[in-house]
Amino acid sequence: MPAPDPAPLDAAGPDARSDARPGSRPDLGATWWRQAVVYQVYPRSFADSDGDGLGDIPGVTSRVGYLAELGVDAIWLSPFYPSALADGGYDVDDYRDVAPELGTLTDFDALVGAAHAVGIKIIVDIVPNHTSNRHAWFLEALASAPGSAARNRYVFRDGTGVDGSLPPSDWQSHFGGPAWTRLTDADGNPEQWYLHLFAPEQPDLNWDNREVHEEFLTTLRFWADRGVDGYRVDVAHALAKDLSDPLRSKPETPGELPLDGSDPLFDRNEVHEIYAEWRQVFDSYDPPRTAVAEAFSAPERRALYARPTELGQAFNFDLLKADFDAAEFREVVEFCLAQAAEAGSSSTWVLSNHDVVRHASRYGLPTGTDLDDWLMTDGLGTILDEEQGLRRARAAVLFMLALPGSAYLYQGEELGLQEVADLPAGALQDPIWLRTQHTKKGRDGARVPLPWTEEGATYGFGSGNAWLPQPAAWSRVAVDQQDGVGGSTLELYRDALRIRRELQTDETLDWIDAGRDDVVHLVRPGGWHCVTNFGTEPYALPAGEVRVASAELVDGQLPGESSAWFTA
Ligand code: NOJ
């Protein structure tokens, strides 16, 4: 792949970057996404405007001012489409509507308008690998005969074994159990099987079918026409499949995918033809719409998704998976920057999202802790050191926000929220809990509704109940408890985002030898330095003006497990 030209920061020029807060943001131009701060909203858990216990679209709109003050460039909305919530909304009944319990298309338009009015972009989640089993297409497929056009939009196969009672292949679902479910006909007789890489309520689409392509092109245009600025593409690596008969066995784990695109299910070469077609839609708008791939591939092939002729950017979860360790963090950054440069893109960075244990808790657990096992103990015992977790989380976010590329924040991390590890079994809704026969709790502990106020039954989330119970300790970390409080995690994020906008210029980075293996020192153009002390011994900062620090300096020394930005 050709080396990219150095990317201009924004078409409006550096002056347009001066802080226009609160209230309005400068227009960052068509390349806004290259170094954006994107805030992920999990709509059902953000803010509930009507007291039904579920966060909703008007709830998000009511908090646009909060997000503007926080200083984010864009909101990524996890799915808000009609859904039975078999997988938290990633089981979509209708891609071109809003779930009635979350609002209406008019509410969505109002959110876009409110966000755009303060210079915040909107990114929607596109889920193209599977629909829900309540989608009109799947209902039609169920009512149609084997071999029909309606069935050919999905992956239906006869079973194997003498009476077809064995699944068509040994493929496993990500949520546990076989990736095939057998139908029964109206008379109760066993019928064909259908493929679902995730829950049975999420039948996989057949991307060998041209109709499927057209349907998603229509969906992309539908949201672009309503003003959305970009898309996050769910399971972007799995759309193209080798469905030749007999279906091939799939021994590889996602971490061991072949480098030649030959796995039957993941990261196949043909998947890129799909995104090249999507790019034409993105580029037919002014400004072009942006996209980011959630793609699991061999790390070396991630860049393919991020090419400017395809989705333009790809998530990497390398930092999220790294231990809080100087060498690991630096290695990840070097690798990811090289990957992004190879693609002609900018890197993404993320520490938490709706699928993982919140990083303030991960960093408080002993290195190597099995997070599924830890959740199964309800987080009990003494192994979680919350103070250490938060200290490291604050250090890590300053490190991340100093990097060139786009930073993705997950709602509530700006409050320093911990994972809710002790949700009662009866409250759990993640299909992982069910599909693993209650041996893995899944992801609900990262999806607990946000606390906005110290008081109130749901800490200001809404006037009714919350769909997942919130811990009592959250009254102390609610937004109103941190707002304006020097040293709070919320104010740390606000300061960091404001200063980042002020200091960010181009996309380069240099490393400076800190003289210690457990300290990382990086510098961005214009003399923007970030020092992160991964160790426990204080570190004497070089001369300069400290702009923000994750912990109070002591006699000019950076305490252990903290970061500081300074200008020199
Ligand atoms: C990735 C999403 O982030 C996750 O929440 C979902 O369960 C799967 N894709 C399936 O859509």
Automatic annotation (TrEMBL):
Belongs to the glycosyl hydrolase 13 family. It comes from the Bacteria. Residues 40-447 form the Glycosyl hydrolase family 13 catalytic domain. GO terms for molecular function: alpha-amylase activity. This is Alpha-glucosidase. InterPro entries: GH, GH13_cat_dom, O16G_dom_2. Keywords: Glycoprotein. Pfam families: Alpha-amylase (PF00128). Residues 1-27 are annotated as: Disordered. GO terms for biological process: oligosaccharide catabolic process.
